[in-house]
Amino acid sequence: PILAVLKAHLPPTGLVLKIAAGTGEHGVHMARNLPGLTWLPTDPDPLALTTIEAWRAEAALPNLLPAIALDASKPAGWPVPRADAVVCINMIHISPWAATQGLMEGSGRRLPPGGVLYLYGPYREADVPTADSNEAFDANLKGRNPAWGLRDREAVVAEAARHGLALAARVEMPANNLSLVFRRG
């Protein structure tokens, strides 16, 4: 389902910065199915970088670059000067709010006008009841780290706007998740 949203909103060619790539499986899947785009997976965790590299080596895709270390919460230190799109799946609820702030600042600095920031995950919405499963997930996250948890969609949209990124689409996804697509003005 994520791929369908990306196909509808990402440019046909260019560099996609994949923030918090985790194991690297999403990057392989996206690179295989969106061959016009070059994917650059990133993660701050050295173990994740090793796993990403293993997935990348096995896939042997020409449009999937070697993973690099990148901490979203430190946008001034991102080693990438420009990207045509930024994709971030399941990060902002499993990280401190500073990572979301850094993601927005870093994306706002690196995306060209019309560039896309894509977010995926669960959110709280003022006008939509939160699913019981998401409430339980939020409690679990906060139990693991009090700085983690579901974010208010409105707060995420406001933080994005501070960095020139406007919400262009909200797409309901399976398992009470959302895809949020932002465009740089």
Structural class: alpha/beta
What's the total number of strands? 9
Radius of gyration (Å): 16 Å
Proportion of strand residues: 25-35%
Give the topology string: H per helix, E per strand.
HEHEHEEHEEHEHEE
Q: Estimate the mean pLDDT confidence.
A: 97
The helix count comes to 6
Bin the helical content.
Answer: 25-40%
Please report the distance between the alpha carbons of the first and last residues: 26 Å
Most strands sheet: 7 strands, mixed
Pick out the low-confidence regions.
Answer: none
Give the strand line-up of the largest sheet. 3-2-1-4-5-9-8
List the helices and strands and how they pair.
Layout: H1 2-9, E1 14-19, H2 25-33, E2 37-43, H3 46-59, E3 68-69, E4 85-89, H4 97-110, E5 116-121, E6 123-124, H5 132-144, E7 151-152, H6 153-161, E8 165-173, E9 177-184
Parallel strand pairs: 1-2, 1-4, 2-3, 4-5, 6-7
Antiparallel strand pairs: 5-9, 8-9
Helix pairs in contact: 2-3
Could you characterize the architecture of this molecule?
It contains 6 helices and 9 strands; from the N terminus they run H-E-H-E-H-E-E-H-E-E-H-E-H-E-E. The protein has helices at 2-9, 25-33, 46-59, 97-110, 132-144, 153-161; strands at 14-19, 37-43, 68-69, 85-89, 116-121, 123-124, 151-152, 165-173, 177-184. Helix 3 links the parallel strand 2 (37-43) and strand 3 (68-69). The protein has a 7-stranded mixed β-sheet, sandwiched between helices. A two-stranded parallel ribbon has the order 6-7. The mean pLDDT is 97. With 185 residues, it is of the alpha/beta class. The longest helix is centred in the first third of the chain and has 14 residues, at 46-59. The two termini are 26 Å apart. Helix 2 packs parallel to helix 3 (46-59).
